[in-house]
Amino acid sequence: MQNILVYIIIALGLSIVINIFLKKIGISQIIGYILTGTIIAYGFDLHEASHSHELEMAGEFGIVFLMFTIGLEISLAKMGSMKKEIFANGFLQVGITTIVTYLLTHYIFALEAKSSIIIALAFSLSSTAIVLTYLKSSKEIYTPYGQNATGILIFQDIAVIPILILISFLTNEGDQDIMVILWHTLFSVVIVIGVLFTVGKKVVAWLLHFSASSEVDELFMGSVLFIVMASSLFAYYMGFTYSLGAFVAGMIIAETKYHHKVESDIAPFKDILLGTFFVVVGMKIDVSLFIHNIGLIISLFLLIFMIKSLIMFALLRLTATSATSLKTALFLSQVGEFSFVIFALAASGHIIDDKLASLLVLIVIFSMVVTPFFVPYINAITAKLIKEKDIVTDMSALKGRENHVVVCGYSVVGKFVTQYLEELDVPYVVIDNSNKHVKEALNEGKEAYLGDVSKTSILEALNIDKAAAVIVTLDNLAKKRLICEAVLNHAKNVNVIVKVVSLEEKEKLADLDITTIVDGKVEVARVLVERMLTCQLKYS
Fold first, then answer.
1. Which is nearest to 74 in space by CA: 137, 146, 151?
2. 86's torsion region: left (phi>0), alpha (psi -120 to 50) or beta?
3. Is the pTM for the entire model greater than 0.70?
């Protein structure tokens, strides 16, 4: 026990020193954690400990809390709006990458069919931990390429489930019928989703409400941790990954009014546990094996990088701009952390040779070490390769803007609002989360941008605190409330004018310090009477 505490203290102190140094030279802290793991493993001969189930579990819960925070960003409504990114792009990316990699490993490298399919599936996955951590910290997760990458990563995490089922089937050499396994899995999915979104949703709402009303921060934080851990364990016991349960829990909380508080409170736990995960990754590095095979490892990594990037770019180019497609492709070009699990299970089940599995793990680690150095320069690389400007997301022109009106939404009401503002010669900008609406506004000569106004990064880019007013024209009540909460939290003195369509909507927004709530039906009634009076005067 004392030795364990000594190792933890040394690892903590070493990671702090390394990361302070790396921060000064602009290198990701992920590299610092990986270096810490490698130094600890060799300094105290802890290579065997890196394969400890307990240690790997602690590291895995870094991914759990990361997926939970992603779930907080993606409510059911938003997931419905991201069907293309998650299910279309995600399925095609995993499917096509798997097929191409399988053909290459089986027919070019002459590996067995079983080994080839497992390697192909593992290499089709990207790093949720690295990519989403960077996208969230840089606020690029709200951009079109950030949303594309997020959607595909969500599908990849879901795809881990059938991959693990396939490994189990191949390990058992067909002792159990594949249809029985699939039927059991489908039944489990229905149970997990059903329980979490019915009973779980009510329990979560009740627990958060009463813990928040207690006004004791540790009780609220304890409730959140309980929700995450319980959901993760429930999903695991039903045969799925811990992270899938946490992701669903995040989606449930995203439907409540507490999701902003939960996200800010959970961040320290997520970051600490993610650090643990990368320390474990560093402990797995076999330096001697890497040195003896450095040429092969780098060559295979570059091959994987090129295959994944080209496939992703070609796939996304069908529906997105060249710049957005290339950025997404480069962000997802590495191999992900779930590949460790896949290769470990495949090796223990004798599907892949142990030496081959060790080499593959080094390729994954090398990929994860290189990626943090690479991702900060993706925008610059794309700008040099593709000479086009993403005008709908580049808000640099708004820097220093003051006394402008921010129009949220460019549907029917938003269009009329901009017309009246132009008649009054009032400066304004349009912001909408729909690519279609933004393109319409741009085609009509409006200054319009794509973005989610409930996000702090977008509010800062729009200079909300210097704006004359924010006019919310959306129809969706949940989105209206999110935007109003975010705007009022960011700039308490800004004028917020919101359109509502019913008394019920007005009552649900009454607790917010909104400057003016405009009831569409009341205003129509008022205008009708005014027009009637005009008619009387005209004919009197």
1. 151
2. alpha
3. no
